[in-house]
Structure formats: structure tokens, C-alpha cells
Amino acid sequence: MKFIYTVIALAMMLTLSLPTRAQSRRITGIIRDSQGQPLPGASVAIKGQLAGVTTDGDGRFSLNVNQKGSLVLAISMIGHERQDLTVGTDGQLVEVRLAAMTSQLDEVVVGASRVEERLLRAPVTVEKMDVRAIRETPSASFYEGINNLKGVDMVTSGLTYRQINTRGFASTGNSRFLQLIDGIDNQPAGFGFSVGNMFGLSDLDAESVELVPGAASALYGPAAFNGVLLMTSKDPFRNQGLSVQSKVGVNHLGDANTGAAIYTDHAIRYAKAFGSKFAFKLNASYMAGLDWFATDYSDVNQTTSPELRGANNPARNALNIYGDEVVRTLPGIGQVSRTGYEEKDLTDYNVYSLKLNGALHYRITPKLEAIYAYNFAKGTANYTGSNRFSVNGFSLIQHRIELRGSNFFVRWYSNAEDSHDSFNTRSLGQQINRAWVRDLNGNVVSPDKADQTWFDRYAAAFAGSIPSVGANNQTAARAFADQGRLLPGTSEYEAQKSRLIGIQGLAGAGILSQTSMWHADGQYNLTPALKNVAEVLIGGNYRQYSLFTNGTLFDDKGGRILYNEFGAFMQVSKTLLADRLKLTVSGRYDKNQNFAGYFTPRAAAVFSATDRHHFRASYQTGFRNPTPSDQFIKLNVGPITILGGAPSNSAGMNVYENSYTASSANLFGAGFGADVSKVGPQQAVLNNKDKLQKSAVPYIAPERVNSVEVGYRGVLTSNLSVDANYYYGVYNNFILNTVVLRPDSPVLGSDGKPNPAAAQDILSGRVQAFQLYTNAPDKVSAQGATLGLNFRTPGGYLLSGNGSWSAFNLRNADPNNVAAFNTPRLKTNVTFGHRNVTSNRAGAALGFNVAWHWQEAFDWVGSFNALIPGRVPAYHLLDAQVNYRVPSLKTVFKLGASNLTNQYVVQAYGSPAVGGLYYLSLTFDQGVK
């Protein structure tokens, strides 16, 4: 790694030393709107170069140019039509008037094809938030505001953690969706998915957001299975000066668990350009608040009939109480569970997110720029996965080095994570329960004996063997078994809690992950070299993962686990029929060292009947590589070993080669039990051994999807636009778990039938159970449609609405083999706003924005509740903000609310109910418009 750093540094130093020979001159001008008023913040760039500036408060600009002869200026402004202007060499003052944009569909996007194009002619569905939409979102953050884009599923686990998905199969840790910030994969490698925006952009530095829903692997690789989110930060050349934002709010109003709590979010950004050569920017933000409480104490014990479940059930297993999952069936009593601890007594709901980053930009020539960026983020979140986890003080460090030209880029970046004090909340409850149990003589027993000792005490008390404890009394028996129980809030409880969080691995609750990855990628647009005969784009990447958990999760005590993957793509586009028909074909090949190579094609056509009406159709493919945990987890939890599906992970263990399916072992056991008293043990084994079935579990492989999409984008009138689409996808190879039993003896005899010795191993306990990661053989399908309308009134009010319909077809698949769809059938968003309701001569203006979201009830299936469906009720959210801009002070005052009506809603089963957040913010920005 040091060698790589050195080579890149030397390459950049050599590149930076390249001379520039072009003669410098200055172009000045003023940009106005159609009414002749100056346009502050308009972008003025030289076409074919990287140089560009933004206009000042009077709409003026000054641009240094190192190019002889005439050139073309690309002039753009949010809400206005883009204009290209040819400038000669006579040094005249440039004056341009930009017409108001009739539709948001006229914006320029990059995400759909990895090159700039009009949104109207993008070959696939794409959504965009520009810098104005980011600034004026009614949500508490721009990231939360993404929920108002059509087709988006957002799951909120807490203040610092929200997960985005599109087109079904949502989860609280979404490894099927790619999230990029300035081209960097924003996932901690050990997670295998992005942790929302906890390690991402601050609102002050966010320039734009583009969302491409659906399979996008043909251009973006294996992680873009369900879609890709591209976030772009502000360029320090074009967005200079000091920006400061202070946001103060309150949440937990009317919360029965706690009183009202203060929420704060502060950010600062400073960017400075020195001429047209060098620029830098610095960002810092810190958000802190009291997280939402997970307090669903529903009894989810499936072995108890529904009418007997609840607080009085001796075998109660409450959803957000931990430790009560430990259960025994006691003779003469029935099923009994241990007394657990509520989540609010185990985790810390005081959360924060710290983000620090800086970037250096150097323009070597007008067409070549070098960039170095550094990001440091650290924070705390409560996350619902297979358990509830406290991502406590988790940090992510990123480095990026990039060389960017007008038609290419070469980039290298690294991600390094450190879990710090993170822990498993459920494990913490179970381990605390094992720290205080006393035997019948009053002596505290060791943790490995604690559970059985507790049940022995319970049984003795229930049987009447304990003086002063009444027999046949479940409540009295539990109270006796709980004698000495550590109580939340006491110093003894807090000491044990702290101690166990500090122990990483099965003996404690702490989580260790110091996993990292580095990534190199590049892209080249061959179109200019081909004289515009066709648009041709090529690119590729190489990535290495470096896993380290010190044996707590992976088999890596002896050193890091390393593995590599690479990919390459090509895209060809051609316009026909006098530019009315645009055809695009893309193809990408990816190879991970643990799996076979995969080719993912995409083909798309856009027919523009007129400049206002555009029809599109596409065929898309996607795939998802298994996460590091899917491949390399090797965790012995006693009765079972959890084993990742990479071939190297089980080398020499003889599991895939020599094991029985768990279901056939159950059939064998039942048959043996029925026969043993009749014919004796030996004959009972022989009678039933053929019920055993040798497992044929394949090693893990990537998931696959093939989909088709049709859509229409149109500007129906000068004030009304529409965007609609329909998609249909077929999925297979879903990653899942299956259980097998490996006996000491060979599973098959010389005759090819189940070996009696192996059958006897099962009865004698000479067997080890394994939970293997593998793929389902079944295929399923999903389809859906979205419709979006935008209407601008003559008075400047903007009314937007969108709706989504999703449907899942299990076909003939086994539901146990299929990832949960976890998506409501219907959802809708409506937004209404105006940025200049009133204004005065000084330019001060009052604006507002309101957003309403509604979605239908649906069943959520996740590993937190052992894949048992839990209902997520229908809910609606109302966000609103009113702002007052004072250009003379370069300040915006904003009063807003997320979930204005304070409806406490659950967005994933087992996650907390989220209520309202009310805030006041003040933003000072030297470039405020």
C-alpha cells in the first residue's frame, strides 16, 4: 500500500509540473434573467474545458482563459434554460439573458449514462435534486428529503441512520443499492452497505443528488443491483467563500419514554480559489440529538399460541427486550424464558455525527485537473439488522486522488473503518444475564453455567422445593430465579455493561471491525476522437478488500483476509432519424476472485416525437456479489457454526462435501424414536437411515436480475410536465442460509447410500451443525410503475405529485428461499411551494415548501425477528418549512418541521417509532441568492 501511495504521489508531482503555454486573457460579463434582472450564482464554464466560475451578487463574472481564438461559454442557472455562447477574441463585455425553464425535465443529468445529457432524453428513469431543491427541502436534512422522489423507499432506524432503496427487497442494511459521493463508494467495507448519510455530505457542501432506480450494474458494477444514488459536492472553484449553518431543534414531543430533547446541527464550509489554477475547500459539521426509542414489547414467541402471548407468558419473547430469547422447556412446567432487559437500558440513545473533509484542486491545464480529498467521519447510530446494534463511535476515513480531464478521469480512493465501541445490544442483554446468576447455595456461577442454573432455580421454586416460595406459581418462581439480578441504573449494572461492551467476540458484546478497501477506476469518452460518429464511453475498475476482525467474526486471527475484484464496461450511443431516435448499448464484465465472471448488458432506446415528447424503453441486467460477511463469516456459537459461502472459507472442514440436510436429520430422528422401543437401537438405525439426505449445497454466488422498462417524459404545456414508467424484473440466485449436519463418519457408505455409522453419529452427538450461506434456486418476479406530475402556476407556485405501485409475484418459489420484498404496494408524495411569495426592493424574499408522504401498510420480513413477518402500518408524514432570504446579509432564516403532525411511525418491524422534529436554522452564505 505504501508503494501505491508513493507511485500516485510521484505521478501527480510530475503531472503538476507540466508547463502551460497558452496565452492568458480575461473574459468578463453579466448574466440576467428574461426580465433583465441580474442572476447571482449562474454558472459560466468554457465548453470542452474544466474552467468555470459563478456570477456574483450583481450577476457579473470574470474568467481567465488560456486559449487562443474563439471559444464557447456554457451558461446555466437553476430554473433557467441553458445557453451556449460563442465568444471571439476582441474582449467585449459578454451580456446574456437566460429564459425561465418551463419544466424540471429540462435539467442536465449524468447518472443515467455516465455522461451529461438532458433529463428528457435519458435512456432510463432518473430523479434529480439540484442545489436549490437541496436548500429548500422541508426535511431536516437533504438526505431525508430524498424520500420525496418518486419510487424511493426510505427506512429510518434513527436520527443518524436512514436507508434508501428502490424497486423492492428493501432492508435496514441495503447491500443491493449503491451510494456514491463524488464517485466514491460510501460504504464501510465491513458493513457491505452504506450507513445512510452518517459518513456522507453536509447540507452546506451538497451540490446535487441523482437517483437511478433499478438494475444499473451495466455501468456501475455489482453493488448497483437495485439502483444507484449519486451525490456531488460543491466545486471550490465555482462555489467560493464562507458558509455557516446553525440548526437547533426539538424532538420527542409527547413521547411517553422521555421528555422533549434538544437537537443541534452545525456546519461550516470555506472555499477559496487562487486565480484559475488552485482552489481548496474545508468542511466541518456536527449533529447531535436524542435518538428515537425502540419500545415494541410485543411477544413474538411463535411456539405460544397468539391468545396466550403477552407480559404474563412464562416464555415471553418481547421484540425490543433482549435476553428473553434464551428459553428452555422444563418438565412439568412447559416453556420458560429468562427475564430480559429493555433496549433503552442497554443502548445509548444520545447519538451524534461528526464529518470533517477537505479537498485540494489544481488545474494543470485548462483541460486537466488534479484533486486530492480527505474525509473523516465518526458517529453513533442504532441500527436494526439480525440484532439491534449500537454503531458506537464508528469511524470511516477516506482518501481520494483524482486526475480529471474534459473527457476522462482516473481515480484512486480508499475506505478504512474502525468499529471502536460498537456492540450488539441483544448479546449485551444476554451476557449481563449471565453475570449475576446464583446457585441454590447463593454462590454466583460462571457465565457458561448461568443459564442452566437460572432454569434449575426456576424449576425448584415452581416444584415447591424452596422454603417460603409457593409451588406452582410462575411469578414466584421467576422472582426466586431472578434473585441477585442486576438492575438498570445501579453502579453494578453499569459496570457490567461497560465491561461486556469492551469484550469483543462471543464472550462479550463488543464488535471489532477494522476492515478496509482500496479502489482504482477510470473512464474515457472516445466521442471527440471518433469525430462524433457515435458516442463511445469506456471504463474499468479494480478493488481490493482487506478484512480484519481479529477472529471475532472472520477466521482472521492469523492476519487479514484479502480478496480482489475488477470490472470493465463499454457504452455506445448513436442518434438516428434526424436526432429523433437515440440508441444506447452498454456491457460490463466483472470478476471477483471467489466467483465466476459475470457479463451484464443494457440496451435502451429513446424516441423523441417532438422536443416536448420523449418515449423510452430499455432492457437492464444487474447482479450483486455477496458481502464480505456472506463470504467469510466463520463464527462458532456453540450448537452451530455460521459459515460464509466462499470456497476458501471452508477449505479442509469437509462441510459441503460431507453433511446431511437438517430437515432429513429431523425425519431420521423422528423415525428412530418411533422404532427404537419396538426393534432396538441397531435395527431402528437401519430402518430409518435412508431418510437421511446428503446435502448438495452450492458455494455462494452472486444474485441476478433481468428487467425491462418503458417510460414517457413530456412537457404537456408550458406549465405542466409528466414522467411515467413501468418496469418488470425477474430475480434469481437470492442469497440465503441453510443448515446442515456434519457427522464424524462419511455420510455415504461404499454402496452410495447413507452410512449407518454416520447415522449413529447423529444419535451420539458426534456431529456439528453449520449454517451455510448459499443461493436459492428459485425465480421470482416484481413489477411496478411510477407517475410524476409537475405544475407551475402563473404566479410561480410549484405543485408536484408522484405515485408508485409495486407488486411481487412469488411464482412457484419456496417463500423460505426468497429475500423479503419489504415494499408497500402503494405510496405517494405531494409537494407544494414557492421561493418568492413576497419580496422587497432590497431583494429579501419569503418562501415556503410543504411535502406530504403516504404509504400503504405491508408486512416486513427481516432477520431481526427470525424472518417472521411483522406488520408495518400505513402512515403519512408531513414536512414543512418557511424561509426568509436576506441577500444584503447573505443569510437565510428557515423554520421547519419533519413529521409536522408528530405521528409516531414505525418504518421497519423492530425499529423505533419515529416522531416529529421541529427546527430553526440560520444559514450565512457568501454566495446566497
Fold and architecture overview:
The chain is mostly beta strands. The protein has 12 helices and 52 strands. Among the domains are: 2-101, Sandwich (Immunoglobulin-like); 306-347 and 426-501, no CATH class; 630-699 and 737-775, no CATH class. A hairpin with a 4-residue loop joins strand 48 and strand 49 (891-898). It is globular. The model is unreliable at 1-22 (pLDDT under 50). This is TonB-dependent receptor. Residues 1-22 form the signal peptide. Belongs to the TonB-dependent receptor family.
Number of helices: 12
Structural class: mainly beta
Strand content: 35-45%
Q: Indicate the multimeric state.
A: single chain
Mean pLDDT: 92
Q: Which word captures the global form?
A: globular
Q: Which radius of gyration do the C-alpha atoms yield?
A: 31 Å
Low-confidence stretches: 1-22
User: Termini, distance in Å?
Assistant: 45 Å
User: Share of helix among residues?
Assistant: 10-25%
Number of strands: 52
Largest sheet report: 22 strands, antiparallel, barrel
GO molecular function: siderophore uptake transmembrane transporter activity
Subcellular location: Cell outer membrane
Membrane topology: Multi-pass membrane protein
Protein name: TonB-dependent receptor
Short description:
Residues 490-900 form the TonB-dependent receptor-like beta-barrel domain. By secondary structure, the protein is mainly beta.
What are the key terms here?
5-stranded mixed β-sheet, membrane, globular, tonb box, 929 residues, 12 helices, Immunoglobulin-like, 22-stranded antiparallel beta barrel, disordered N terminus, mainly beta
